[in-house]
Design goal:
The chain is of the alpha+beta class. The protein has helices spanning 4-20, 22-33, 37-53, 57-73, 78-97, 104-153, 159-171, 193-207, 246-254, 272-289, 302-308, 311-326, 332-344, 349-356, 360-374, 380-399, and strands at residues 179-187, 224-228, 231-237, 258-262, 266-267, 293-295. Strands 1, 2, 3, 4, 5 and 6 form a 6-stranded mixed β-sheet that branches. A hairpin with a 2-residue loop joins β2 (224-228) and β3 (231-237). Residues 210-218 have low confidence and may be disordered.
Length: 400
């Protein structure tokens, strides 16, 4: 009958003897894996310590998980790190076989211990590497969010700031010299921030597509969908092939209560903030005048922006040009409407009457009344100024 206690004591003696000759063991492992003795020595010493101390599976797994995590942080490939361990266990096995006092029972126990240790080792080291991978992914995601916030919010103030932003973009996989397109979306329904975030996340999932090549951990996947200052922002390359489907996605996910403005292509990350500033102004204007749906370029709202960007200036211009008409408390609003439609109709009284459902002589009467109130005819320079003022008045009216 095998004396288990004696076998364990003999095993401990064999491992102690091998540890006393650890220098030769380190040399053998280094030659086997093709690395320097200083590189493999920590692994050899760790395996010998575990074999001598026998901390138990739970503690041993925790020790190996920490070792794997540290190796991952040091940038050591997992396959190479594990190779150091497997080579060490093999060298210990060979040394045990050659020990002059070992018997079959002790040798079998050493072999079983090494095999169990390898099973624990591989799983625990993999856990350590995976934990660091998750930390790295989370950290990179946070840094990418910070980078997005920066490039959307702030144009570089000087060449040094521009160079720093380019380096940061390149570090996280965003090509600093590529052409980009930004789309800004505003929710007109007044829903809560949580509902806006749900819509943004749903849009992000819909736009996200698997990489054909598997991608690099350092790549910056585009398009990106983020919440930025109460807006849903989509950042994509200028050549994004699915850009034409974005209006459909927005309609399906957000319903009818949204307005989106697509920015023009911009070269490099330095220009994204300026584009975002223009889109913000365009969305503000769109919301004020009641526009909804897809707006293909900010230029579609350039005139509306012009006459709504400064409320006090617009009010002063409207009052100066149209104040005499607006002073007519009974007919002022109708006269302004008639004037605007008259200009839009190419100063055609018959077409103006058709659009307003009025008789031509009623239109003529109103135009005469407008001219009397203003004290000048509705032609020449007065025509140009009045047409702009009437348009501005309408924009202010839509603004509410």
């Amino acid at each position: 009958m095998i004396d288990e206690r004696a076998v364990l004591e003999a095993r401990h003696g064999i491992i102690t003897a091998i540890a006393a000759e650890s220098a030769s063991l380190v040399e053998g492992v280094a030659a086997d894996v093709g690395e320097s003795p200083d590189t493999v020595r920590p692994v050899v010493e760790l395996v010998l310590r575990l074999l001598l101390d026998q901390p138990g599976i739970t503690k041993g797994r925790a020790i190996m998980r920490l070792a794997g995590a540290q190796a991952a942080r040091d940038g050591i490939p997992a396959e190479r790190f594990l190779q150091r361990f497997t080579s060490t266990t093999w060298m210990i096995w060979e040394a045990a076989r050659e020990h002059p006092s070992i018997d079959q029972a002790v040798l079998e126990n050493v072999g079983q211990t090494l095999l169990r240790g390898i099973d624990v080792l591989v799983g625990a080291v993999a856990d350590g590497y995976n934990a660091v991978d998750r930390e790295t992914v989370a950290h990179d995601a946070e840094m990418r969010r910070a980078l997005l916030e920066d490039i959307l919010s702030n144009a570089p103030s000087d060449p040094v700031a521009a160079a720093r932003r380019r380096r940061t973009a390149d570090r996280y996989g965003l090509d600093p010299d590529a052409m980009y397109r930004v789309v800004a979306v505003a929710d007109r329904s007044g829903d809560t921030n949580a509902m806006l975030e749900d819509g943004a996340h749903a849009l992000g999932r819909r736009l996200r597509r698997p990489s054909r090549s598997g991608g690099s951990a350092s790549s910056f996947p585009l398009p990106q969908v983020v919440i930025w200052r109460g807006l849903v922002v989509v950042l994509a390359t200028a050549s994004w092939p699915a850009a034409d489907k974005l209006p459909q996605h927005l309609g399906e996910l957000l319903g009818d209560d949204w307005v989106a403005v697509a920015g023009d292509p911009v070269i490099g990350v330095e220009g994204i903030a300026a584009t975002m500033g223009r889109l913000t102004l365009s969305l503000r204007t769109a919301l004020r005048i009641g526009r909804d749906g897809w707006i293909a370029t900010p230029d579609e709202l350039a005139l509306e922006e012009l006459v709504t960007v400064d409320d006090e200036l617009v009010d002063a211009a409207v009052n100066h040009e149209l104040g005499a008409i607006l002073a007519d408390g009974r007919m002022g609003a109708e006269l302004i409407q008639t004037l605007e439609v008259y200009f839009e109709s190419g100063q055609n009284m018959r077409e103006t009457g058709r659009r307003l459902h009025l008789a031509p002589r009623t239109v003529a009467y109103r135009l005469e009344r407008i001219a009397r109130l203003l004290g000048h005819p509705l032609d020449g320079a007065a025509y140009r100024r009045l047409s702009v003022a009437a348009f501005a008045y309408r924009m202010r009216g839509q603004d509410g």
